[in-house]
Amino acid sequence: VWTFNANENVLELKASAGQSADADEPQGRVPVGKSEIGRIAEEKRPHLTNAVAGDPRVLDQASARREGMFSFAGYPLLLGDKLVGVLAVFTRNPLPVTTLDALSVVAANAAVGIERADSDARLRESELRGRVIIDTAVDAIITIDERGIIDRVNPALARMSGFSAGELVGQSVNLLIPSPD
Taking 60 as the threshold, does the pLDDT of residue 74 lie above it? Predict the structure, then answer.
């Protein structure tokens, strides 16, 4: 499984089983448009061959011969038209044409899973950035829930109020801002 790095326009090996399990090998970072993996990404179309030796899309013919690879099937990981990556299988045995049907199901689920994981990572990064901004701000910042209970205070507010953050969280905002203010 290769995932698409849009910033560098390359596919990065994320998961592998068998002979090519090292992300530091040439197959670990594949430019879009290069080799069979990169061409699948560029064209956003699957590819299957039962003649790896001699297939012009398989650039690393020496590795294919050395490993005894006979067949290759690859499928783009897409969400709509958005490229997420490429799923590929190399084997020493012939693959039936129905392999692409099976890969289409796996690819659809893998694309959703990869996108969800990427979204979760972006959300965690954004939340961390927000925490850093709040924690380093020189102005007092407080968040409260819909009942007026303090959820969070930054160090500046704690310093200004004379209370520790631990003393304030869970208390009514009225502790800091008496009614009717």
Answer: yes
CA-closest candidate to residue 65, choices 111, 28, 105, 19: 19
C-alpha dihedral (76, 79, 85, 88), degrees to nearest 10 = -30
Is the pLDDT assigned to residue 57 strictly greater than 90?
no
Question: What's the pLDDT score for residue 82?
Answer: 93
Q: Please tell me which residue, 154 or 19, carries the higher pLDDT value.
A: 154
Give Cα separations from 110 to 4, 26, 99, 104, 134 (angstroms).
13, 23, 16, 10, 36
d(CA 2, CA 45): 15
Q: What is the pLDDT of residue 24?
A: 55
Determine the 3-state secondary structure of 109 from DSSP.
Answer: helix
DSSP assignment letter at 115:
H
- DSSP conformation letters of 5-46: ETTTTEEEE----SS---TTSGGGEEETTSHHHHHHHHHT--
